[in-house]
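Appendix B, example 12.
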Amino acid sequence: MSVEINNESGVEVEESRLQRLAAFVLESLHVHPDTELGVMMVDEAAIEQLHVQWMDEPGPTDVLSFPMDELRPGRVDARTPAGLLGDVVICPQVAETQAEAAGHDLQQEMAVLLTHGMLHLLGFDHAVPDEEAEMFGLQRDLLLSFAMRERGRK
């Protein structure tokens, strides 16, 4: 997996942990190991500009996803073909505010946002209740499994 992380936000984040999480999500969803993913952290002004430009919505947001090859999750017996998954853009400043409101730390919120953004790149959405239940259930399961794996590393 090629996961390129670029932090232009001015906020310190655990890039190595995000790298491991991204690889874990791709592996768990049977995405080809040669797939490329970009992860960028930007400040509020930059994400607001992207939010207006691409979603036609005002104000900063927490995460945006920009799919490239429209890859979908594979199966154990049939991995997704290699390709460019796309880019996930996260705003750590917005994530910090959300983390405080949720009662957890910035690193946990960044993990949630990265996983959420990657699921969007893989075709998941939450526009209707059934899709929302599927996407957020999968997101929760991936984050719990990753946390268990990380505990085992220590």
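Helices lie at 15-28, 44-55, 92-102, 106-121, 129-153. The CA atoms of residues 18 and 119 lie 15 Å apart.
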